[in-house]
Amino acid sequence: MAVNYGSKRIVVGAHYGLRDWLAQRVTAALMALFTLIVLAQVIFSKGPIGYDKWSGIFSSQWMKTLTFVVIIALLYHVWVGMRDIWMDYIKPVWLKLVLNVFTIAWLVGCAGWAIQVLWRV
């Protein structure tokens, strides 16, 4: 005898997709806007593009803050994407765990490096 539990689907232990889908779109839009801002600064700047020009673009406090926010958005964007890939395509639980830990360690390392570069400018 089949038991009908209603029309609601009960998902246990999985991430709900709307939050992650929305996070991917919001972080992608933020990164696209940042790219347009940087391109506008490069296009409308006078003189040759070199280290001095790039350090000038990123030397102001508002640009450092915006870049920091975009770095955090990029890290979250990558984390959601990689986590979903590991969840969808890797079957052994121990391998998922190893890959998730490696991904987190790699992203933290990249964040440290990016912030170090940003604050040296």
Give a brief outline of the structure.
The chain is 77% helix and 0% strand. It has 121 residues and is mostly helical. The radius of gyration is 20 Å and the shape is elongated.
Topology:
Blueprint: H1 17-43, H2 51-59, H3 61-89, H4 93-120
Task: Characterise this structure.
This protein is mainly α and 121 residues long. It is built from four helices and no strands. The protein has one domain (17-120): Fumarate reductase/succinate dehydrogenase, transmembrane subunit (3 helical TM bundles of succinate and fumarate reductases), CATH 1.20.1300.10. It has helices at residues 17-43, 51-59, 61-89, 93-120. Helix 1 packs antiparallel against helix 3 and helix 3 packs antiparallel against helix 4. The mean pLDDT is 88.
Q: Oligomeric state of the chains?
A: single chain
Q: From the helix content, strand content and strand pairing, which structural class follows?
A: mainly alpha
Uncertain spans, ≥5 residues at pLDDT below 50?
A: none
Mean pLDDT over the residues? 88
